[in-house]
Amino acid sequence: MPNRNRIVLILFFTIAISQIVFAQNKRTINGSVTDSRTGETLIGASVKVTGATTAAAVTNSYGFYSIGLTEGQYEIAVSFIGYKTSRQNISITKDVRFNFALEEDNQLNEVVISAIKRNENVSSPQMGLQKIDIKEINSVPVLLGERDVLKTLQLLPGIKSAGEGNSGFYVRGGSTDQNLILLDEAPVYNASHLLGFFSTFNSDAIKDVSVYKGGMPAQYGGRLASVLDIKMNDGNRKTYTVEGGVGLISSRLKVEGPIVKDKGSFMISARRTYMDAFLKLSPDSSINSNTLYFYDLNAKANYQIDDKNTLYLSGYFGRDKLGLSDTFGFNWGNATVTLRWNHLFNNKLFSNTSLIYSNYNYVLQNFMEENNFEINSAIKDFNLKQDFEYSLNNSHNLKFGVNAIQHTIAPGKLTATETSSVNATNYESRKGMELAAYLSDEWNASERLNVVYGLRLSSFALFGPGTIKTYDTDGNVIGNDVYKSGDVVKSYLNLEPRFSASYQLNEQSSLKAAYTRNVQNIHLMSNSTSTSPTDLYIMNSNNVKPEIADQVATGYFRNFNDNNYEFSAEVYYKWMQNQIEYRSGTDLRGNNNVEADLLYGDGRAYGIELFFKKRFGKFNGWVGYTLSRTERQFDAINNGKWFYAKQDRTHDLSVVGIYKGGPRWTFSSVFVYNTGSAVTFPSGKYQINGRTVFYYTEKNGYRTPAYHRLDVSATLEGKPGKKVQSSWSFGIYNLYNQQNAFSIDFKDDPDDASRTQVVRTTLFGIIPSVTWNFKF
After folding, report:
1. Taking the CB of residue 776, how many other CB atoms lie within 10 A of it?
2. Where are the domains of the chain?
3. Multiple choice CATH, 3-102, 3.40.50.720, 2.60.40.1120, 3.40.50.10490, 3.40.50.1240
4. How far apart are CA 490 and CA 467, in angstroms?
5. How confident is the model at residue 6 (pLDDT cuts 50, 70, 90)?
6. Could you identify which of 258, 273, 545, 658 might form a hypothetical disulfide with 668, taking C-beta atoms 3.0 to 4.6 angstroms apart as the criterion?
7. Percentage of residues in the chain with pLDDT exceeding 70?
């Protein structure tokens, strides 16, 4: 281990141990906070002891809290946005377990778009964290009326869309594969439907959405740019409910209810498009025999064995199918399963044990007899996580744990019939193991200073069996070694320090700073501008090193008018090592020597993010603006000079407005503007045997035209008091019919070959939508 890593490790544990030595022996009150109507746990609820003490806690991802107090009489106030504050007088003479059930505040005639305490954005030491409320997702207008978590995230500063209508996103200069996307702790490798136009996440099944753009807590690892942590609904423990919706291209249905009242519940949510049904209405046999649809299913169940033990089982299953008559077939999808056990060892120590399975695969088929073949590819994970949370005292909250992930990547298996001109091929699978251990402490150093510091130790090992090649910088084979099952081909070990702090200038404003190091061991290879179902994943090897990113950030946070308005300005700088590009002309699929065509270099990203938000009232919304630069440097590209990365956009602006126009109507609108993407256009052309060849010079030296769009929507709620609650949602995507460029190509002018035509392809014009939603 390098001396620098040893120093960081020793310093971290010295600080942590010194804090433990000075811990005071106090009584403890702990428990959970839930919704009184459904029994659903509330994440991020504020539990505060009123009076002379400033003791307080925020419920964790499982709705659990713990506070240390000396013996005495206290008033405990529990609050959560959109709920009535609950106050209880409690006598503390011993350790006490006390659960709170909050009632919804139905008197609030407002659209609430925050699920944290009113000044959490100021007081919390966490930087780069954005939380999205489900009400917000349901109110924002989107393409074809499909409520979409990822499309809503793209409206926040520092998070950029990967393209027109695309659910892929870039965070602070990172590429799409540098985002860790978790659904109930299970990684999702391709979070999109219909080639990226919709995300895999059905908002009906989602309870909590958090995205970390920087300053990630030490329990997260494996990606460079961000963490998107999505939690599914647990299900209603009180009563059975059915809800859903019918739209122009899809319908959805959710059923939930108690397994045993107040002890356990279930939730099942399903969604399917029916564009294929419209295709069958065509009299043209070349159209009505085509296939185009996706479906997804979310399911979750939980059971509370006793006050100290609760079990959870959740899963996601989704698939896309696309077929062109008897010519071509293509389907892809994700499957995840998470089994969790929450256990309370004592009044201070909380444990979560998770067994996680994740599988992403695709099947590509060609049915033409002379070229009949099928390609299968998959990435599969088995994951064991053990997390602990220890409330040392009111000043220190420790989190620590371990994580082990076994990766298996099958890059491709090609099978063909005897009559096919295509030869069958079976590419070797690769197996790897990621191990990690972490420790972090949230330290309330004083009334004004809060600090979160932590350390993550991560390792990766590539295992046999297989034939492993080693390449020089020109892509030539210089080694060819055979490994048996279980043999270690190559291993890497990295320390990832994390630090974030906030200093409150007063009750309404604070300064924050953060430093984060992240390491990534799984890499996505893609020739396209956005995520494709057939993109290739590779692991670290003797050729491919872990990607490493260091990020520093600082910011000013300010609330106004009794926390009804919030403002933040964050400045960041990120430098990246071992970034990966491919050589010109590389074909990533059907290539058993893909590592020979890879190039390695550095990256940097920096910018400022401004965010202004009105949080409460009949009219609210936000304005987000990002001014940024993202660049890469490779010795073999652009003559070794720095060049713009494809995700570089100088300006990115989003304006969101939501208006509650009475007891039944809600109106909303979204305006977006961003600088065009960095692209490589031809600088000239020449003829070879009568064929035009375009000549390219500077990498990503040009820009597509600027992108802008206005969307609007209106929702009409049904009359209150009826057994069946319903609503109608109307929307218009791209209201003024802006012809934004999806792609730009070049070709010879048919009338004069010496001239060049620029061909712009537009994907979406003005698109109306309507959806009927119901619940009973």
Report:
1. 12
2. 3-102, 230-775
3. 2.60.40.1120
4. 13
5. low
6. 658
7. 90
d(C-alpha 755, C-alpha 296), whole Å:
49
Residues 265 and 234 sit within 8 Å (Cβ to Cβ): yes
Position 246: which residue type? Answer: V
278 contacts: CB under 8 Å, gap ≥ 6: none
pLDDT digits (tens, 9 = 90+) for 9-66: 554 454 444 444 444 447 888 888 888 888 888 888 888 887 656 688 888 888 888 8
Query: CA-to-CA distance for 503 and 512, rounded, in angstroms?
Result: 6
**φ, ψ at 557 (rounded to 5°):** -125, 135
* Better-predicted residue by pLDDT, 465 or 140: 465
Q: What is the pLDDT of residue 587?
A: 58
What is the average pLDDT value for the chain, to the nearest integer? 85
pLDDT band at residue 352 under the 50/70/90 scheme = very high
Q: Tell me if 526 sits within 8 A of 178, measured CB to CB.
A: no
Q: What is the DSSP letter of 162?
A: S
Task: Give yes or no for a contact between 497 and 530, defined as CB atoms under 8 angstroms apart.
Answer: no
DSSP character at residue 585: T
Residue 125 and residue 106: Cα distance in Å, rounded?
32
Residue reference for tokens 């892809």: 332
> Residue 117: is its pLDDT beyond 70?
no
User: Tokens in use for 59?
Assistant: 């419920």
Alpha-carbon distance of 740 to 465, in angstroms, equals 49
- Write the pLDDT tens digit of every residue in 404-436: 999 999 877 777 777 766 666 777 889 999 999
- Specify whether the CB–CB gap between 439 and 455 falls below 8 A: yes
**CATH number 2.40.170.20 given to 230-775:** yes
The first and second tokens of residue 388, run together, are: 């602990």
Give dist(CA 377, CA 538) in Å, integer: 12
Structure tokens at 740: 């934004």
User: Of 119, 127, 112, which is closest to residue 560 (Cα–Cα)?
Assistant: 119
